[in-house]
């Protein structure tokens, strides 16, 4: 970002608007211009902008303002309103680009104009063009000459499209050089969308999979890992980051405020840059699974995702916290039953759609308004094994998965859910290895005094060494133990 402090940015924006309006009021009181309208504006501008000092000699930019005002008396007041707005000089912080090279190629007259507002300068230039200048105007040529073209490397696939795009505007002699203005690059980013990718979790026969974009897919490589090539960070443009709320082996998760709708979300960001296509494809499996699944009240809701700076960003529903075991952890039996029931419903939903999660554990179960939600689909795969299998956290995996002899991927999730609930009940993290680790995989779980035997038997069945004998997610949610739980909660709500 720029070197501006947030405070200075906020002040700049707030005052700018106020000053613009203030000037209009002053002019309404005394509309008579002085003999030299340009000089009058310069002094007004100095007063209004306080900290921004206009030093002699006048800049080319000022000259442009003055001559424009002299040549167009009827548009004078409109132009002033526009130019004297502080917004003209300062880019709002959320659209200040991260990429420094763009700033350097657009900076001009650092002393008089807020130097870190390249995007606004570009916009302002086009507005001036509409209001008074024609393409052949020497003033415009003068101003444009200050903008150095930037040399960029073009890959073979994008070059064709870009050449077509620019053919009507480029000098044929210059075409042989790869000099392209920044505006053209930004334009290219808008006209050439990223490729469409097939979602492996959606049935191939589905009507959604008419291959409308197959030719585009084959021509363009990658998943546009550098969205933001026009210098804007989508993350910074769309969201205001509030705090980091979690991290895992692969990602950091932030609580963010979405600027356009004012709602809070969680945005998960990959820690490592995903340099090659294989890495990016693998990371995308998570969002593809979430998108293919759609909405379920016990699955963390997925909103959107994108690549930026070679990292994958996933915008999700914000939850309160995960069920990670902490010190002084106490959980009531009814709460654990509720968790088991709700996550079994999530598993039933995904298993019905042929997807296995393969990383069910307390860290990946989130609580929100006393509802429990399954998240982190980073290891999700198809149960028919047509996609690769990547195992999750070994502490919660059954022996058949660790021995890579796994036929029933849905039953892996059942074991993991049983192990996760067991861990929450005993209140201490499960072992990563050793004799205790092995005995748990042999179905030897110690008795839990104070908890109903029926419940303990259910957990034992879920962690059975034989995957076939483990109950399915549907069998779990239909277990009679939940009848008691719900009849109790119903009678409590009637009271
Ligand atoms: N939607 C969310 N709302 C609130 N907190 C979240 C959300 N998503 C993730 N978190 C927090 O961030 C942590 C890390 O997220 P996540 O498990 O998705 O990352 P990961 O790198 O894939 O983890 P792992 O190491 O398990 O593979 C979670 O344990 C949780 O505490
Ligand atoms: Mg996780």
Automatic annotation (TrEMBL):
Keywords from the UniProt entry: ATP-binding, Kinase, Magnesium, Metal-binding, Nucleotide-binding, Transferase, Tyrosine-protein kinase
Region feature Disordered, mapped onto this chain: 1-42
Start-end of Basic residues biased regions: 1-22
Stored InterPro entries: CC_SR_Kinase (IPR050339), Kinase-like_dom_sf (IPR011009), Prot_kinase_dom (IPR000719), Protein_kinase_ATP_BS (IPR017441)
Molecular-function annotations in GO: ATP binding; metal ion binding; non-membrane spanning protein tyrosine kinase activity
Example of a GO cellular component annotation carried by this entry: nucleus
Domain Protein kinase, chain residue ranges per copy: 239-482
SMART domains: S_TKc (SM00220)
Xref: Pfam families: Pkinase (PF00069)
Positions contributing to ATP binding: 268
The UniProt record lists the keyword Nucleotide-binding: yes
Keyword ATP-binding found: yes
Major enzyme class: transferase
EC number(s) recorded for this UniProt protein: 2.7.10.2
PANTHER family: EUKARYOTIC TRANSLATION INITIATION FACTOR 2-ALPHA KINASE EIF2-ALPHA KINASE -RELATED, WEE1-LIKE PROTEIN KINASE
Protein's recorded name: Wee1-like protein kinase
Organism, scientific name: Rhynchospora breviuscula
């Amino acid at each position: 970002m720029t070197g501006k402090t947030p405070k200075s940015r906020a002040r700049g924006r707030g005052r700018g608007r106020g000053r613009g309006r203030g000037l209009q009021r002053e002019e309404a009181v005394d509309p008579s211009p002085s003999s030299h309208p340009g000089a009058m504006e310069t002094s007004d501008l100095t007063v209004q902008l306080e900290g921004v000092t206009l030093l002699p000699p006048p800049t080319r930019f000022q000259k442009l303002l003055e001559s424009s005002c002299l040549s167009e008396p009827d548009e004078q007041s409109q132009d002033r309103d526009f130019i004297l707005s502080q917004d003209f000089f300062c880019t709002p912080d959320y659209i200040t680009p991260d990429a420094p090279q763009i700033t350097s190629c657009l900076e001009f007259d650092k002393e008089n104009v807020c130097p870190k507002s390249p995007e606004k300068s570009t916009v302002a230039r086009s507005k001036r063009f509409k209001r008074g200048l024609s393409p052949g105007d020497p003033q415009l040529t003068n101003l444009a000459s200050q903008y150095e073209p930037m040399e960029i490397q073009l890959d073979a696939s994008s070059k064709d499209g870009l050449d077509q795009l620019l053919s009507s505007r480029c000098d044929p002699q210059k075409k042989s050089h790869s000099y392209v203005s920044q505006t053209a690059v930004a334009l290219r980013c808008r006209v050439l969308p990223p490729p469409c990718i097939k979602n492996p979790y959606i049935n191939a026969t589905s009507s959604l999979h008419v291959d409308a974009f197959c030719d585009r897919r084959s021509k363009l490589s990658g998943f546009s890992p550098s969205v933001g090539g026009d210098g804007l960070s989508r993350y910074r443009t769309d969201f205001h980051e509030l705090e980091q709320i979690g991290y895992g082996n692969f990602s950091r998760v932030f609580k963010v405020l979405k600027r356009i709708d004012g709602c809070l979300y969680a945005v998960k960001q990959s820690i490592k840059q995903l340099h090659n296509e294989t890495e990016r494809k693998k990371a995308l499996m998570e969002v593809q699974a979430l998108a293919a699944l759609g909405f379920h009240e016990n699955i963390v809701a997925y909103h959107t995702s994108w690549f930026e700076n070679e990292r994958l960003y996933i915008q999700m529903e914000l939850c309160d916290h995960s069920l990670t075991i902490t010190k002084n952890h106490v959980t009531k039996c009814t709460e654990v039953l509720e968790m088991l029931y709700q996550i079994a419903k999530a598993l039933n939903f995904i298993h019905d759609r042929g997807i296995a999660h393969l990383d069910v554990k307390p860290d990946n179960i989130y609580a929100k308004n006393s509802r429990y939600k399954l998240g982190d689909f980073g290891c999700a795969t198809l149960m028919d094994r047509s996609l690769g299998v990547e195992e999750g956290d070994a502490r919660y995996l059954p022996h058949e998965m660790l021995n890579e002899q796994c036929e029933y991927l849905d039953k892996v999730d059942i074991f993991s859910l049983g192990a996760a609930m067991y861990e929450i009940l005993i209140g201490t993290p499960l072992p990563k290895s050793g004799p205790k680790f092995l005995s748990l995989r042999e179905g030897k779980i110690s008795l839990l005094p104070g908890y109903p035997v029926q419940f303990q038997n259910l957990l034992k069945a879920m962690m059975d060494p034989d995957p076939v004998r483990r109950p399915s997610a549907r069998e779990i949610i239909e277990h009679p133990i939940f009848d008691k739980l719900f009849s109790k909660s119903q009678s409590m709500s009637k009271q």
